[in-house]
Amino acid sequence: MLDLRRVTARPDRSFVVFLIGMRVNAWWKPWKWMPVAAAMPRMLEELGRAPSLGFLGGESFFGRTTLMLSYWESTEHLLAFAKDDARAHMPAWKGFYSAGRSGDVGIWHETYTIAPGTFENVYVAMPPFGLGRAFGVVEARGELSRAKGRLAGRPIAA
């Protein structure tokens, strides 16, 4: 649902931003990159069914290079999911490394731990998105109406 207000997400605790994606280097070899692409929806479905895993939500972007922007409770939650042989990630990871040495498809990720007061965001005329979808939003009024105020280090729980 579209929110016409000017809003901001104000998590009052640390959280993790995890970016992950793939790059199709040989688009004419779909048998190489399709299994990699197909693994992500399975992982997201599993994460959506089990809030205790610490996945808070995310957004996906598609092109030759894909990007999954995700939010996690902690690095401990993220690493526990990644290393758990009983979860969808480990078979996907093993499959990529057994087939991925050709260079036909690449994978990448970046992990950031974010503390309150070290980030800012604003959403105008947007449906729930990104950090706002993961944590909820408050109206961006007063000191929160400018980036400087949102970066001031005074978290406000949404």
Mean pLDDT: 91
Number of strands: 7
CATH class of the largest domain: Alpha Beta
Number of domains: 2
Elements, N to C (H/E): EEHEEHHEEHEH
CATH structural fold name of the largest domain: Alpha-Beta Plaits
Largest sheet: 4 strands, antiparallel
Helicity level, as a percent range?
25-40%
Q: Give the low-confidence spans.
A: none
- Measured distance between first and last alpha carbons: 18 Å
Shape descriptor: elongated
The CATH architecture term of the largest domain is 2-Layer Sandwich
> What integer value in Å does the Rg equal?
18 Å
Strand line-up across the major sheet: 3-4-2-5
| Alpha-beta classification | alpha+beta
Number of helices: 5
Describe the model.
It is elongated, with a radius of gyration of 18 Å. Strand 3 and strand 4 form a beta hairpin. It has a four-stranded antiparallel β-sheet. It has a three-stranded antiparallel β-sheet with strand order 6-1-7, with no helix packed on it. It has five helices and seven strands, in the order ββαββααββαβα. The protein has 158 residues and is an alpha+beta fold. The chain has two domains: 3-11 and 115-150, no CATH class; 15-114, 2-Layer Sandwich (Alpha-Beta Plaits), CATH 3.30.70.100.
